[in-house]
Write a structure and sequence with these properties.
This protein has no helices and eleven strands. It is mostly beta strands. Strand 4 and strand 5 (46-51) form a beta hairpin.
Length: 124
């Protein structure tokens, strides 16, 4: 059982940056692909970013490409989401998730373990 704990969310103004972190409890973190998803109020959870087990391959949603980047540090069992040039439409609860396959994926169904989420609010 992998436990994931997100941190780094908060209230920021448009144009600001935030870095989200997701720490894993499991020692086999380095074998999992990791993903970030978000869910705005009243909307379905949507894909944001994914990275494979080694960190050598990643994918970013079109809506945030060029502003968000995903990275991981297997030694620290942590995955990061760097968010720049934040917009009000980025407001959501952000979740990290782990996929045992090790392969990056945009599909929620591929992810077996989920964190509880961290709120990001972008407002002036």
């Amino acid at each position: 059982q992998v436990q994931l704990v997100e941190s780094g969310g908060g209230l920021v103004q448009p144009g600001d940056s935030l870095r989200l972190s997701c720490a894993a409890s499991e020692g086999t973190f380095s074998t999992y692909a990791m993903g970030w998803f978000r869910q705005a109020l009243g909307k379905e959870r949507e894909f944001v970013a994914t990275i494979n087990w080694s960190g050598g391959s990643s994918n970013i949603a079109d809506s945030v490409r060029g502003r968000f980047t995903i990275s991981r540090d297997n030694a620290k069992a942590t995955v990061y989401l760097q968010m720049n040039s934040l917009k009000p439409e980025d407001t959501a609860v952000y979740y990290c998730a782990a996929a045992p396959s090790g392969y990056r994926s945009m599909r929620r169904e591929e992810y077996e373990y989920w964190g509880r989420g961290t709120q990001v609010t972008v407002s002036s």
